[in-house]
Amino acid sequence: MQKFTSLALLALTALFLTEAIRAAEPLRFLVWNIEWFPGKRPTASAAEADAHMKEAQAALKQINPDIFVGVEIRDWAAFQELTSVVPGLTVHAVSSFCDSESGELRPQQIGIASKLVCRAAWWENWVANVPRMSRGFTFAALEHPDGGLLMVYGNHLKSNSGSNTEEGAKDVAAMRADQTRQLLAHREQVKKAFVKQEILGWIACGDFNTNHDKQFPFCTVVKQMTEGGYFNTWANTPKAKRLTWLPGPDSPFEATTFDYIFTEGIAKTEAFTLKVPQDISDHVPMAIRITKP
Fold first, then answer.
1. Range 84-89 contact pairs with CB under 8 angstroms and sequence separation of 24 or more
2. Strand partners for 154
3. pLDDT (mean) for 182-197
4. Is it the case that residue 14 has pLDDT exceeding 60?
5. CA–CA distance, 258 with 65 (Å, rounded to integer)
6. H helices, E strands: number in the chain
7. What is the pLDDT of residues 217-267, one digit of tens each?
8. What whole-number distance in Å separates Cα of residue 150 and Cα of residue 209?
9. What's the pLDDT score for residue 23?
10. Which residue ranges form the domains of the chain, and what is each CATH number?
11. C-alpha dihedral over 82, 78, 161, 69, to 10 degrees?
């Protein structure tokens, strides 16, 4: 009887150790702008959309993220179909940004999906403090397996369209600066809403359409985020290793960094890009591994 008890105890101990190891494993966090998904252009045919869907599904299944933020997603149905190939990945929120003039749903939305328990999720438009403000952000409060909440933001800031003159570049920079101020202000609102719960950390990611390489001299987004308490996971990465936007063969522009993951509260880590077939998107997926501090 004692031998049986000892064996049972050993088995139980091994089980607990296995669970502890599993719980301590870093979470795989992925953000990816999939370029007018599905179809790679707003007027894609059904055949083009289907081919793009299959290519992106194959890549996503291989990556197998625990948390996934998708940018330039057509709608909830498209994001749901995309994420369905990864077991356990559940869609929590997809934005529904509409055109300010026509009222029609825009084809570039932001989705958040994960394998974690979701405590809250929603999306918001940017407040139009600056003329021609569009889009917004998506948010989800997710339970970390080891306890505490991960607050995740998916973003898509103002594009560089219209910035070909100094005045235009200043206007674009002002719009992105206001969007960033709103994002930081929303974090303070969320802190008040979840004041009685443990917040493990914050992640703000997506296509910020700018970088810290002085490519956009009037833009202050990265500085605003870091001065606001976030850590830039590209901070120590050489430019050549963080090229997240790759132009086509006939493009006059050079490859650059547009996509970022900013973190606060979790262990600081260096982001990295993932190799996928380049014909899926002009953006490269980027990722981090989330561990507790």
1. 85/57, 85/58, 85/60, 85/61, 86/60, 86/61, 88/115, 89/65, 89/113, 89/114, 89/115
2. 138, 205
3. 96
4. no
5. 21
6. 5, 12
7. 999 999 999 999 999 999 999 999 999 999 988 888 899 999 999 999 999
8. 24
9. 52
10. 2-290 (3.60.10.10)
11. -50
